[in-house]
Amino acid sequence: MKIRAIVTVKGLVQGVAFRHHTVLKGNQLKVTGWVKNLPDGDVQGCFEGDEPNVQALVEWCYHGPSRARVDRVIVEREPFRGEFDSFDVRY
Fold first, then answer.
1. Of the residues 4, 19, 69, 81, which is catalytic?
2. Sites in the chain below the pLDDT cut of 50
3. β-pair type (87-89, 32-37)
4. 27 carries an active-site annotation
5. Beta strands of 1-91 (E only): which ranges?
6. What distances in angstroms separate CA 14 from CA 9, 11, 19, one per listed residue?
7. What percentage of residues in the chain have a pLDDT greater than 90?
């Protein structure tokens, strides 16, 4: 089953290569979508793919890369759209 998740990660998540590592992990898991920094210091991502793979990427966001400090993760499920061919950083 294909799913879509919008994830907002709060904490010390900018300036620690969170986006870069999310793209690497997303590509490893064959998840498509995007990740970006938000003006308030959070990181947000949109993940699409097979349910176990998307769930694995969401779970990874709870700790992120070694220099990150994740305080909270907000996950919103949306209907799968299949609109992405890759996983990228958005600016």
1. 19
2. none
3. parallel
4. no
5. 2-12, 32-37, 43-50, 69-78, 87-89
6. 10, 8, 8
7. 100
